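USER:
Before I trust my own judgement here, I would like a peer's view. Write it directly below this note and I will take it from there.

ASSISTANT:
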Amino acid sequence: MRFQISLIISFLSIFLISCEKDEEEFINPVETKEETGTQASSELEIEQFVYRGMKDIYLYKDQVPSLANNYFRSNAERDDYLTGFSDPEDLFDALTYSQDRFSFITDDYKALEERFDGVSSSTAGMDFGLGRISNSNNVFGYIRYVIPGTSADTENLERGMIFTEVNGQALNVNNYNSLLEANTMEINIGKIENGTIILSDKTAQLSRSEYNENPVHESKVLNIEGQKIAYLMYNSFTGKYDAQLNAAFSEFKAEAVDELVLDLRYNGGGSVDSAIDLASMITGQFEGEIFLKEQWNKEYQESFEANDPERLLNRFDTKIRTGEAINSLNLSRVYVLTSKSTASASELIINGLEPYIEVVQVGDQTTGKFQASVTLYDSPNFGKSNASENHTYAIQPLVFKSANANGKTDYINGLKPDIEYIESPENLGELGDRDEPLLGNALNHIFGKAPLKRSVEEIKTAEKFKTIGESGMNEINYQRMYIESLPELLN
């Protein structure tokens, strides 16, 4: 995960990064014999890669003593250390800062690449939350939305439906993970009424199959009281679908919308480039201004500042990665719908726009994820080209913290809403409908009306059913924010 650069050699180097969105190739000096030894042990190939990557570029390198540049007196001593771990995962955990929740290792980088491209087979096409029924170990799922063209769609599942069983077994705190990973499953169907789960005699037959999820789940224009309000539900910052996102803004622009409600309540993040593009679509009047500042580990930060300070700045732009011109709305205000599932690149949108326009956050407090990662492969320069053919391990370490133009970062506890409304499985409403509680609260603010409050029944329901998770939480790209190309080194 880390680029191994010796202090003697690497900081005679200059970091030079192109601001272009084209795929960049990371050029890293090939390690010398003094650095790697003349005979690399095949048994330690993966462990040496993991250590080399973490030692080089890990954001929290200074917090892990064994990653210090002079920690080992020799390669033999380093290899003795690596031999003490049962597997690469065990080593990676030991090299990860205790407060880092987001760096990870995978033994199948091909699957990781597919997930970053929006390819999935998880949950049979239903996005759901998981709740624990108070005073018991029983668990229920509630459907938040259904992905078109999937098994869940074919079975006519809908937002707000409840299920408590999978393949005839009641969900509980001990088995829900394993039951929900089945390739085929039968779920029962019910609803919550007056704080009570009511089950019907209906069931749904679901099966996993690979599908591509367009993160632009819904876009529409609401005509209300003489104003045009754009509504966009965007569920992942997936670069492969930037053109579809831009197309939605083309329609909004053609309609000359007055306001935008951006629904990120289930968006766990993704590509930094896509976030910059989305911010530029919302605005347009800040071309060239700083949207995001990067803060790397001490060695990288000092080198960037000395040799290429522009590398640390990400600016509002005018084109998506395909070269297509961005459709900008030039808005001075945006409404963002959030929940505890809103993370990383979604939070980047809120934080990055706040110095420039009014951002009205509606919903619940966000996750609190402000760091970005990158994929490192086992190759001399950590790029995919020339990666080892002996394995498919990759590491995805955090490499920088994001800060907005005013320097705001470290929002560990998330971003607090301006208008709080915590979504209830008893009253989810229909997405994109003006009466759906979160959207309704945004509309009320637009038209100067009092905010909606949760009913007594909703509050009681929330007390009875405690949220414990959601679909996708065990996926390797869950709540990740990442850059798609590595910094380039000049020898």
Notes: DSSP finds 14 helices and 25 strands in the chain. The CA atoms of residues 119 and 442 lie 32 Å apart.
